[in-house]
Amino acid sequence: MSETPSSYAGRWVARVRGQIVAQGGTPEQARRASQSSRHKEPPEIIFMPPTTPLKFSALLDKVRDALPDVELYLVGGAVRDALLNRVSLDLDFALPSDGIRTSRRLADALGAGIFPLDDERDTGRVIVTHADGSREKLDFATYRGDSLDADLRARDFTVNAMAVDLKDMSLLDPLEGAADLRAKKIRACSDTSLSDDPIRILRGIRLAASLDFEIEPSTRKMMKSAAKLLPKISPERLRDEIFRICAGPRQSDSFRALELLGVLPHILPELSALKGVEQPTPHVHEVWEHTLQVLSALERILRILEGDESLILADPFAGPLVARLGMYREKFAAHFSQSLNEDREARPLLFLSALYHDIAKPQSATKDETGRIRFWGHDEEGTKVAAHRLRELHLSNDEVARVETVIRNHMRLHYHSDQKIKKGLDPSRRAIYRFFRDSGKAGVDLTLLALADLRGTYGEKLTQETWSAALDVAQIFLENYFERPEESIAPPRLLDGNDLMRELGIAPGPRLGELLEAIREAQADGEVRTREEAIALARKLIEMIQK
Question: Which pTM does this prediction carry?
Answer without folding.
Answer: 0.91
